[in-house]
Amino acid sequence: MKTAIIATLISTAAAFAPNAQPAAQTALNAEAADRRSFLGAAAAFGAAAIPAAASARVDYENVAYLGGGSTVDVNNANVRAYLRLPGMYPSAAGKIVTHGPYKSVADVYNIPGLTSAEKEVIKKYESKFVAKDPAAEYVIDRVNNGLYR
């Protein structure tokens, strides 16, 4: 990358340099012209090698299910979304976010090691759960999203 930057700077400076050399130095002029064309080509290659900006998905259509509303997405919501549901956090909520993905809300009951008390509290809030398709942007931060009290 440094070479491409230096080549760009040199080719730019060479374009504005005065061309007042004696005619006797034609071999030197040919070498300089070859160098300028090489550096110009290197600068063009360097500019072409810079990747274009990726088009990111700005709006997530299921953002309401990530914990800001009354319904919680069991596949994408962070563990902190379960704080609004008394009895869910931390034990049942921790097990929900560390397992999955779930095809339906009923799959939550198949979590290994789920106690009967945790199953009861999940049953209590089952109507508030939804199982949307997992989105990589949100699944990666389900256990710890870096927000602390």
From TrEMBL:
Pfam families assigned: PsbU
Tree of life domain: Eukaryota
Residue spans crossing the bilayer: none
Subcellular location: Membrane
GO cellular component: extrinsic component of membrane; photosystem II
UniProt keyword annotations, A-Z: Membrane, Signal, Thylakoid
InterPro entries: PSII_PsbU (IPR010527)
Keyword Transferase: no
GO biological process terms held by the UniProt record: photosynthesis; photosystem II stabilization
Signal peptide: 1-15
Predominant subcellular localization, coarse grouping: membrane
Annotated membrane topology: Peripheral membrane protein
Coiled-coil regions listed in the entry: none
Family: Belongs to the PsbU family.
This protein's name: Photosystem II 12 kDa extrinsic protein
Organism: Thalassiosira oceanica (Marine diatom)
